[in-house]
Amino acid sequence: MSLEGFFQPESVALVGASRRKGKVGHEILRSLIEGGFEGPIWPVNPKAKEIEGLACHPDLKSIGRAPGLVVVAVPPQAAAAVVRECGRVGARGAIVVSSGFREMGEEGRRLEEDLARAAREAKVRIIGPNCLGVMVPARKLNAAFGGPLPAPGSIGYFSQSGSLLAAIADMGREKGIGFSKLVSIGNKADVDELDILRALAADEATGVIAGYLETIAEGDAFIREAERISHDKPILLMKAGHTEAGAEAASSHTGRLAGSRRAYEAVFARAGIVRCESITAQFDAARALAAQPVPSGTAVAVIANAGGPGIMAVDAAERHGLQLAQFEEATVRRLSESLPPAANVRNPIDVLGDALTDRFELALTAALADANVDSALVLLTPHAMTEADGTAEAVVRVARSVDAKPVLASFIGAGRVARASGVLRDGGVPCYDSPEAAVGALKAMVDYGRWRGRPKRVVKLFPVNRRKVEKIIGRCVRGDRCELGEMEAKEVLEAYGFVTPKGLVATSAEQAAEFAEQIGYPVVLKIWSPDIVHKADVGGVRTGLTGRTEVMDAFDLMMYRVPRKRPDANILGALVQEMCKGGTEVILGMNRDPRYGPLLMFGMGGVMVEVLKDVAFYLAPITGEEAREMLTQTRTWKVLQGEGAGEGVDVDAVAEGLQRLSQLVTEFPQIQEMDINPFVVGPEGATPVAVDARIVIERGAG
Amino acid sequence: MSLEGFFQPESVALVGASRRKGKVGHEILRSLIEGGFEGPIWPVNPKAKEIEGLACHPDLKSIGRAPGLVVVAVPPQAAAAVVRECGRVGARGAIVVSSGFREMGEEGRRLEEDLARAAREAKVRIIGPNCLGVMVPARKLNAAFGGPLPAPGSIGYFSQSGSLLAAIADMGREKGIGFSKLVSIGNKADVDELDILRALAADEATGVIAGYLETIAEGDAFIREAERISHDKPILLMKAGHTEAGAEAASSHTGRLAGSRRAYEAVFARAGIVRCESITAQFDAARALAAQPVPSGTAVAVIANAGGPGIMAVDAAERHGLQLAQFEEATVRRLSESLPPAANVRNPIDVLGDALTDRFELALTAALADANVDSALVLLTPHAMTEADGTAEAVVRVARSVDAKPVLASFIGAGRVARASGVLRDGGVPCYDSPEAAVGALKAMVDYGRWRGRPKRVVKLFPVNRRKVEKIIGRCVRGDRCELGEMEAKEVLEAYGFVTPKGLVATSAEQAAEFAEQIGYPVVLKIWSPDIVHKADVGGVRTGLTGRTEVMDAFDLMMYRVPRKRPDANILGALVQEMCKGGTEVILGMNRDPRYGPLLMFGMGGVMVEVLKDVAFYLAPITGEEAREMLTQTRTWKVLQGEGAGEGVDVDAVAEGLQRLSQLVTEFPQIQEMDINPFVVGPEGATPVAVDARIVIERGAG
Q1: Among the partner residues B277, B306, B614, nearest to A161 by beta-carbon distance
Q2: pLDDT score at B4
Q3: What are phi and psi of A267, to 5 degrees?
Q4: Distance in Å, alpha carbon of A174 to nearest chain B alpha carbon
Q5: What pLDDT, on a 0 to 100 scale, did the predictor assign at position A260?
Q6: Are strands B274-275 and B235-239 parallel, antiparallel or unpaired?
């Protein structure tokens, strides 16, 4: 069955209904009754005749009809049997609120496996176990033990934490914010976050999807779905329980930097998911997106009747990367003509402490009519003559008259603006306790709007020599090696259109000198051994060699010294390599996240990359726009543009490098991690050079 | 008079009392009456006999006694005359709430100057003009138009924005948080933030000082006072209206990086001021510090009855740099013995969804008894059987039984925990809407505690050659130059114990080669001209010269090329300098902030400093501990410790460099900006070298 049955059942049976106050089986029955559910409610309990005025059934079968929804509140050992009974009587959906499963250790895990098997075999979908239940305010369905129903509305919320869901419902009740569905997903033995995401996407009553997750099982499928859904409905997620552990084990810079918080950020950004740092921030953003249109740009107009809150909003906007709109001259003129001389008619507009409704209305109207304005914030603090209620009505009126430009408000001052806040809320203009909270919500809207308005994703495919890479990787896998050698790595890069420095492996000092002369001075000499990964650590790298004798001396010294440090290593000679002069060193990398797939990385190159952590991540495959966006997210971007060090570099060439890397790692899922470091880029028109690379292959891939 | 008269007057006169509702002169009268002020209230208005049941006086004189406090609510043109009248009748303090002064342009500025002069001449202290007034809840004094009085309490709040003060009072009323004083300081024509700070420091009823400021007039005095006061009472400031403008004009890296937000951060850190990013965050922190002891460390214990909120708190703690306490084995044992097997007995403690009061009480008691725990957070979400009220009482009980370890709570779930939140608040345990808010408040407490517990500040004084620096700077000032030459800058550094690279100025190619041989290859060649500051830009720097011919060629090329780029420059030759090999490049710098004084800077050196912005600031003079703390605040710290690039460096030598720089800029206030960049540091025991320096002197100093 689709999940719709959970949301609009004709009837509900509660197995494990209880007469004892405080028992979950009692609380849920009361919730169902007090919520006002309009279909039949059937308590099931073999030991009772009647509970809370409803006739009790000894089992599901004796009801005589298939319940639209079954809520299971029995001890964990009995849950699987009840689910089997559901199947026999023709019920297709059950919410198992019982706890005592996986969260309780080994024995519980076994019970949960039994439960999941029972559900599969009986063809019954189950939500839970160990969950709080489901609420559908518009259907007066409160099949949960999380307090009374909040108002109906357009926010669909799902949560891996039951108590958080109860808190969200409570906040909604207190602030008068409505919900379409509230779903506690519990241990996800059957229905998981992906099912719920799809159900809320298909649900017409849901305009904004919000959720709290601690784990995401099928990461890549979740992200694909989220990306599809985000085009229509914003998804706001709070993801808790980040951990950087595990990253230590990686052998590339990229692997070590791609901690799981970074992975979520990159993955969420790709899918258009708005990441929230706290439930309050999420609630603030959800209210805004549920009630107001998405802005088409970052320019905000601020209207206030006091300097302080205006300045606070401007500071917060700056911190969040929003722009203060530059008004058109016509707007400034219009405001100057109508507001008192002491008013500030540039953004932020100060309509002064003695402003009545008319000044707010006029300023907001003028600001929203300005082509440079994408959104507006109205900040009111009550002075002696302030007309908070009238102003709220005017703000609602003006906001309604404008398409596609959101208006948010912050009427500051608790009790004294309570009625006005209600007017705003009921009129669809979210009102926040502080200017900072309003700006935070606006920032979430802007981020979502930017994502939704981005150009259609076209991933460029470069002509490459795929066959060659297949061969190299195949050889590596057959040899049961997990890392390509330096020469192999360069061959891979060359096959995908990267330019690598000229280099030849010499086996004698004379040959090294000969090669150096062919290549041209200065050259670099590197020890050549399949067994030595960190060449510099064993004295196996010499740079800046400028003459025949120097090269020969360096060669012989290496052949003498390296074997003493690494007597185990099979040394094949030394690589004589062209030395890259000038240019800017960046790093391009990839780490394959076990849940989400290939995470590309860009950053400042060289040995400092892990210290500076000035890197950006994005999920492959990547478009040209996304590649450029990765560059702009780092401080290194300024270096690329020529700040600090001097002249800028060919930014398009760097973006192309990222796209070629994206193609490589997309076409070869065997590649687990890789760094191109340094990737040396020069001024416009110059060809970047992939000087060094490390490619880690999955052992046993093929 | 001291400001006490404003806070506990015997009587209040209101000049400009008005019968018309909505007028400030009416609103304040009603505030005074409704606040329940117990002394006489004298409305003054020549046109009325009686207002709100009180007899009206035509002027101050006709009252026949000197009012303890005069509130002035007359048109701006009349305010100065009223203040003069105050002086004549013996009143010593007036609050001028009238607006229409400096905030209204030139004419208003003149009126404000008149007002200030009148106050000085009449020896009357005035608060305002353009302010909201003053509230003293414990005295039932509401001499303001910001709504009813909040409860008495220990938070003293002052604000440069009147409407913000009204909002704070409102938030206090709504959340039941008490205040000692609320002061709107308005345009600060006489009484300013420094006066108020001192008054609140001296006020026994005030335990926590909080304020909102847009400008700080006498920055250095304010900071000195704040530093003194912070030892006894925490100061929480929200500083709005930051701007990075002006920094562009600076000629040093340090000057350009020391934007005003950075300056405030550094200065606030030195004075122990807790910087708040929003009024909500400030309010949260003030509540915590007013009610609970300051923690002595960063280790927090989290106790929750659900996984989600616990994880959220842990995430927030990690973001804020707090540590999750590692329980002692005895604590873990104690918890294991008493809690159900499914409970998590490691931090964060999960007492499970069916926990009654006893489990919370037990867990909190055990956690606070643990020597590894500095503070505790109790997170409750209401489940069916949760005893929110009883748990709140238990939390209060346990919190009271422990010294010096703060306990904060977040009972999540709005209406369903409203009573319990009240129990907590009344019992002195602040309760927050979300775990993140509670963690934010705790972070402010920890920062303050760390500052207060820091070792006594001992600024080390090195033996230096002060006389020599005086001579060099004197010569520069007499020559009306604003920047020291390279050689002079190095002499200054050497006089203060820095080592600079060997170098000699050559006037011919032959001499350059001779000097190079004396110094030892490789050498650096730099054009030598008092007129050329950015040498590299005109081709005036060549590094890595390794032989006689190379040096001679470089010299002659410079002499040929540089004059063509800078025909105006007086070229005296070229500096032949020892080249520093290896080592790590950092920057030490100073920018003299016009309000606060010399801001020291430390960061990653080289050309990238302004791009990476990996720098830390602190106000000179600095102690050894503070110098080391500056280092640890940057990502460069990891480099110094040997991450990334290889071996670590002599950290103490870097800290000593900062302290020597601190001494130099403290002893020579004529130095406006300076960079030592790069300051090359080597492994332990190696002497760091100040390779290049730029010192900017105040023109006309002396």
Answers
A1: B306
A2: 84
A3: -70, -45
A4: 6
A5: 67
A6: parallel
Q: Which CATH architecture has domain B150-292?
A: 3-Layer(aba) Sandwich (3.40)
Average pLDDT over residues B513-519: 92
pLDDT band at A245 (very low <50, low <70, confident <90, very high): very low
Are the Cβ atoms of B311 and A240 closer than 8 angstroms? yes
Rounded CA separation B545/B680 (Å): 19
**What residues of chain B lie within 8 A of the CB of A163, using their CB?**
305-306, 308-309, 353, 381-383, 412
Domain boundaries, given as residue ranges, for chain A: 1-132, 150-292, 297-452, 466-578, 584-697
The predicted pLDDT at position B426 comes to 93
CB contact under 8 A, B635 and A611: yes
Unique residue bearing structure tokens 């502080």: A434
For residues A580 and A524, the answer to whether their CB atoms sit within 8 Å is no
- A1-132 against A297-452: fold identical: yes
Question: Are B159 and A277 a contacting pair at CB < 8 A?
Answer: no
Question: In 10 A of CB B564, how many CB atoms?
Answer: 9
Separation CA B215–CA A308 (nearest Å): 11
Cα gap B413→A146, rounded to integer Å: 10
Please give the pLDDT value at position A700. Answer: 67
What topology does CATH give the domain B466-578? Dna Ligase; domain 1 (3.30.1490)
Does pLDDT of A693 surpass 60?
A: yes
Binning pLDDT at 50, 70 and 90, where does residue B247 land? very low
**CATH class of the region A1-132:** alpha beta
Q: Which has the minimum average pLDDT: B107-121, B345-359, B408-422?
A: B408-422
The CATH topology of domain B297-452 is: Rossmann fold (3.40.50)
- B contact test, residue of A215, A312, A354, A581 with most B CBs within 10 A: A312
First-to-last C-alpha distance (Å) of chain B: 38
Burial of residue A598 (number of CB atoms within 10 Å: 0-12, 13-18, 19+): buried
Inter-chain contact A342–B103, Cβ cutoff 8 Å? yes
Chain A interface includes B620 (CB < 8 A): no
Report the sign of the C-alpha dihedral through residues B688, B691, B694, B695, in that order.
Answer: positive
Interval A346-362: pLDDT, tens: 999 999 888 999 999 99
Residue A581 has pLDDT above 80, yes or no: no
Q: What is the mean pLDDT of residues A589-605?
A: 89
Superfamily name and number for A584-697: ATP-grasp fold, B domain (3.30.470.20)
The model's pLDDT over B332-353, given as tens digits with 9 standing for 90+, comes to: 999 999 999 888 999 999 998 8
The partner residue sitting opposite A166, judged by closest CB among B240, B382, B437, is: B382
- B36-39 CB contacts, 8 Å cutoff, 24+ apart: B36/B140, B37/B12, B37/B139, B37/B140, B37/B141, B37/B142, B38/B140, B39/B9, B39/B10, B39/B11, B39/B12, B39/B68
- Smallest Cβ–Cβ distance between B635 and the set A315, A436, A612 belongs to A612
How many beta-carbon contacts under 8 Å exist across A and B? 222
d(Cα B197, Cα B204) in Å, to the nearest integer?
13
* Mean pLDDT along residues B448-455: 91
What's the rounded Cα separation, in Å, for the pair B605 and A190? Answer: 56
Q: What is the pLDDT of residues A273-326, one digit of tens each?
A: 999 988 889 999 999 999 999 999 999 999 999 888 888 899 899 888 899 999
Count CB neighbours of A254 within 10 A: 30
Distance CA A227, CA A211 (A): 15
pLDDT digits (tens, 9 = 90+) for B137-175: 999 999 999 889 999 999 999 999 888 898 899 889 888
Chain B contact probe: residue of A164, A305, A417, A677 with most B CBs at under 10 A = A164
- Give the CATH architecture of domain B1-131: 3-Layer(aba) Sandwich (3.40)
User: What's the CA gap between B46 and A130, in Å, rounded?
Assistant: 75
